[in-house]
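agent> call fold_tool(seq_1)
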Amino acid sequence: MAVSRHVLGPIINISMAGLSFRYMNETSNGEVPNTLGIFLGSDNILIEDLNTEIISDEIISNRSTFLQTSTRQRSIKFTNLTEGQREKLEEFINNKTVEMC
């Protein structure tokens, strides 16, 4: 999961360069902070304060009359990671993801 003070959503894909995730948003501007964390509760993993730059942010599904929210997908690249963050990210990718062809 991608996490911050304002968003929680599943990660769609991830690499050492960046990631894509989906999230629900009630407003049309899709405002999400540029600092995110990666959380995997089943293994008690949290990589905090990853600086990011937005590459794209798209509406995946429009608001429904019931929920009044939109599902969005944001793609980001990692910027200015510390050595510790890079090590944790590499370990996470190597041990907790599946390579897709």
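agent> call fold_tool(seq_2)
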Amino acid sequence: MSGQRTANIILAVFIIAKFLLQTIVVDPAYELQRDEYLHLDQANHLAWGFLSVPPFTSWIAWMIKMLGNTLFWIRFFPALFGAMTLYFVWKAVEHLGGSLFACILAASGLLFSVLLRLNILFQPNAADVLFWTMSFYFLIRYIGTRQNRFLYFMAISFAFGMLNKYNIIFWAVGLLPAILVTSQRRILANKHFWFAAIVALIIFLPNLLWQYNNGFPVIHHMQELKERQLVNVTLKGFLGDQLLFFFGSFFIWMAAIPAFICYPPFRKYRVIGWSFLFIILLFIYLKAKSYYAIGLYPIYFAFGSIYLDQLTKGKYLRFAKFLLPVIPLLLLIPMFNLVFPLLSPKEIMAKKEKFAKFGLLRWEDGKDHNLPQDFADMRGWKEMAHLVDSAYALIPENERQYAIVLTNNYGQAGAINYYSRFKNIGAVSFNADYKTWFPWSTKVKHGIRVKTDEPGEDPNDTEEKSLFSNYYLIGYVKDSSAREFNTKVILLMNANTDINKVLEAEAKED
């Protein structure tokens, strides 16, 4: 069997292992996470942009919808993006002249890392990491071969990354000074570099025009993010998370840092090393969320694994080095039940003290709850949707065109639209993308209100009672492990005022 054939078989084993692991790290007791419902609903409102994200995720959501909207396909695509990330890193190792051992070490480090958690969820983050990795990969291929086609592949990868999540702009901004301070600055004199940049702009242009036509909502979104969330980001927390993301394999990507300095074959690739410094400094300066930087790391596993292979070639280290690919798994095993939704809510509650010890039960409200917040965000949605269906069924069929389902947040609206047996129920919210999907043309006569009482709020003191002739409390979400616990569903019949004007006023307040 040839060496390349052996390598391809082992790569296939890693990819299969990636898909299998993604299926077992989530207990069946958990549903989708709230963000996933929003992204799935985007398939019903295809456009060149959204308030929350660029359009790429909606294209994948449309494909999932065409395939039946089943849980299998929802889980499949994030796992696919993770497997593709592993594939490109493996190929980068091969291109850089790394051995089969180096390929295995890099693949092991990626397989048993934060990507295992990231690739659970149908969100832009999985594809974001992939496009970062692809952009770096094609830059490496260009530097190694000077074939201009790789500049175009790099530009296309970057452009689709922009159509997926604007976060990849950090890659381009950080890469530019890295090019200027290294010998790779000659790339700027290559006309194909600029032609490739034009290709990237053409691909991204429809979304750019959408932003322009809609008043650049991304600017408002970033300002809101800065005021509400990024202001709480600390340097200590950001840097600490960078190590935790690849807890069991940080020694692999960190080996890339001395590799660019000490390993002669990597001298021409020092632009990749400098880009790491500039991108990290950019993230720190802008107080970015720590997970924004995850896409930066996979390509450094390629350089680090090759350098570690070279360092352990001595006869005394030759056998010991074969333990290196096992270390990421060994260090991750004790954390499996804590990091992944692998245990059912009952099992977590039975081990509540262990989770509380690590601060995993503390939510953003500063209090300890029954489940980690991320896990609680994956419970209670079906129950809520069933309550809404029970209410909707009570509205006469010929009157449903005058009914509206109004929720408190995008997770509620998306989950109802996903699980409801009524295809055109059209739950909405004044939150996220639902602001632009609001059915203002509907002359509202009946309503279903989905809401969670604020702390200290009198559940009997409801504004809706005065707006409709009939008020029926259908029920509450009873799952105490769900973040939506105690969310109530109210059926409102026969409006006694102009509800559209009330909704317009509420929309302006929000």
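agent> summarizing second result for user.
The mean pLDDT is 91. The beta strands are 403-407, 428-429, 446-451, 468-476, 488-495.
agent> awaiting next instruction.
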